[in-house]
Amino acid sequence: MPSTPSRRALLGSLAGLCTGFSGCLDGTFQAPETDAPASTDEAGTTPTPVTSSDDAEPRLGTVWVTDSVVHVAAVDSLVVTGAPDGHQFVFAGYRDDSDVLPERFGLRIDGDRRAPEEPKGSYVSFDTIARTSDRVGDGETVTGFVVPVRDTVERATLTYAGRPMRELDRRARRRLTGDPTFAVRAFSLPDRLSPTERLVADLTVANVGSRDGTFRATAPQFAVLPTVVEHEIPAGETAQFTTAITWGASATPMQRSVGEELTLTLSWSGGTRTATVSVEPTVSSRLSRRLRPRSDRSRPGRG
């Protein structure tokens, strides 16, 4: 006759059964872990999960509206590119922390959608703008649009893959309703200067356009790291101001032009203007020349 299990043995068996189905008492079920391999394709490799670029989330930086932009050119020079007549630029810096497609950006202005478009001009691109503009943060790139001005702008929205990303504020929208145009009335330099003295230019610039804007220019033209001139001028007004002209190169044109006339070119999106200055030797160089023995003065230099 078979023996009857004891109460202690029966309780032990029930405890083991509940342990095997952990979670049965709280309404959840955890499947036992297995070492089954991940699914593979026909080639025997594990497929990479597909992420849609439309799901990317570009992190926007500064968004701004302008009629001109300063950017790098060849040999570390700087130039100004202006928007076509009757147009404005809209730029936005963004950080690409995911699979962002630049062509999926858009700009909706009162229902009219515009696609990204780089400015037209020599050396200008979203990359050169990103490397130059102080509005673009470290590690950011740039997208932008060339927008015809219109009478009114009620709403302007930067989008990505059709999703709204940033609303342009009232000041930015107002810039899309007019076109500043600048005319340089005067650009002058001192009559004479030594290489150690500060070179200051006098400018008179008129905004003959229909909207407030920023006059931008570089001087000297095509120099290494030239001076960038920027001055806000309301529509219909004329501004007189001064600006110091400096160079980023180790040997400046002032040092190379002692005893000669130096011609500098102011360059902006609407044209160029030139001015001259006579570069004289410094006081120390004139004194050293006077104190040099006559025999040394007549001695030919070594080539």
- What's the assembly state of these chains? single chain
CATH topology of the largest domain: Immunoglobulin-like
- Structural category is mainly beta
**CA-CA gap between termini:** 126 Å
Sketch the topology as an H/E string, one letter per element. Answer: HEEEEEEHEEEHEEEEEEHEEHH
Label the CATH architecture of the largest domain: Sandwich
How would you sum up the global shape? elongated
Beta-strand residue percentage: 35-45%
In DSSP terms (H or I, runs of 4 or more residues), the helix count works out at: 6
What does the average pLDDT come to?
Answer: 79
**Count of discrete structural domains:** 2
Whole-number radius of gyration? 34 Å
- Give the CATH level 1 class of the largest domain: Mainly Beta
For the sheet with most strands, the description reads:
5 strands, mixed
Strand order of the largest sheet: 11-17-16-13-14
Low-confidence stretches: 1-43, 45-51, 284-289, 296-303
Question: Into which percent range does the helicity of residues fall?
Answer: 10-25%
Find the count of extended strands (DSSP E, 2+ residues).
17
Topology:
Blueprint: H1 7-20, E1 59-66, E2 68-72, E3 78-82, E4 87-95, E5 105-109, E6 112-114, H2 126-130, E7 141-148, E8 156-160, E9 163-167, H3 170-175, E10 182-188, E11 192-193, E12 200-207, E13 213-219, E14 227-233, E15 238-244, H4 253-256, E16 261-268, E17 271-279, H5 283-291, H6 294-298
Parallel strand pairs: 11-17
Antiparallel strand pairs: 1-4, 2-3, 4-7, 5-6, 5-8, 8-9, 10-12, 12-15, 13-14, 13-16, 16-17
